[in-house]
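Chapter review. Work through the record for R13L1/DRL21-like LRR repeat region domain-containing protein before attempting the end-of-chapter questions.
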Amino acid sequence: MKKLPTATGNLINLRHLNDTGANSLQEMPPKMGQLTSLQTLSNFIVSKGNGFMIRELGDLIHLRGAFCISGLDNVVDAKAAKLYEKQGLDELLMEWSNTNSEDSRNEKVELEVLDMLQPDNKVKVLSINGYYGPIFPTWVGDPRFSNMVHLL
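Structure tokens for R13L1/DRL21-like LRR repeat region domain-containing protein:
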């Protein structure tokens, strides 16, 4: 499966969307931000050319458990995701794609994206994959994240 149905965003009472194991999934359907009752979303994919799609996460304040955002190298406005408002997230995986060459990646932009994706301080597990930034943002290691038990 490469795509979810285009009308998935119309399922406004949907609470759980488990796309774990859907490794061929390439993008998210439009209007995901309308799924404001969504509690489980295992992976949100930001595809090339759809860098603004991450703003669809902004209204999904009930997300909980484990959550992954992949394709972060395609993100345009990361702050709009409002991860800091998602108090139910226990595990957060942030993934940059390995398909882009090192030459086409901008370390400063990657640092800015990661900085804007600061999660709520209750997150316990944080994994960051494929990040080429020169340093981590100041929120990584901040004492407010004392609940964190695992950092990858």
